[in-house]
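User: Some background: our group keeps a shared notebook of sequences we're curious about, and every so often someone picks one and asks for a predicted structure to add to the entry. Today it's my turn. The entry only has the sequence so far, pasted here. Could you supply the structure so I can complete it?
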Amino acid sequence: MTQRSILIVAPHPDDETLGCGGTMACRARQGCRITVVVVTDGRHLFRLSRWKIEAAPTPAEASAMRKDETRRAVAILAGEAAAIRFLDVEDATLAHHVDAVAETLASIVREVRPDEIYVTSQHEEHPDHVAACVAVRSAMRSTRSRATLYRYVIALAGGRSPDTVGEPTVAVDIGPQQDLKRRAVSQFASHLTIVGRGQTEPFFASIEPWVRPVEVFFVDAP
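Assistant: Of course. Here's the predicted structure to add to the notebook entry:
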């Protein structure tokens, strides 16, 4: 039996865990081979926050911190079943690099021949999340990929819930992997603790919204 291939595309170092970490863990335990591609370097998390932190941490330090968090989280979720690639596009600029990223993703699609692809949806608030979806769809068209496309939810534009978008959704029960996802999300100290000089509260008030027993996707079948 051929080992199934899963490609997970994350606009930032954390989206792969927050949006579909439980599903990643489920697929790893089903014997799938998983490739995680983190598109941007995540360097501007603190600089673009309401605290506008330019130093302590610097953008380079923020990027390194977030990448380490992602490595630890993915290791918890998928262990040796997963390989991570960082494309290092500058954070918050992905919309200006869609064509180049689509070409890189197309090369990866040809290499790993995924049966399933996961990426943020075009309904997201963050421009990088929208651009990642555009790049993935372009890569799938250029390679004539027959993968099923799962578009995961981080934060939809206008604060909408998935059931108000007008597209059908699929809810994946992550079941026994829920506690594993909790451990993985807990690796993101950049979000769960006060890190920056002048920062008054963590980015996340609670871990709970990210460790619910189901993960919701918009799905495009081939």
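Suggested note for the entry: The first strand starts at residue 5 and ends at 10. Strands lie at 5-10, 33-40, 82-89, 116-120, 148-152, 169-173, 214-220.
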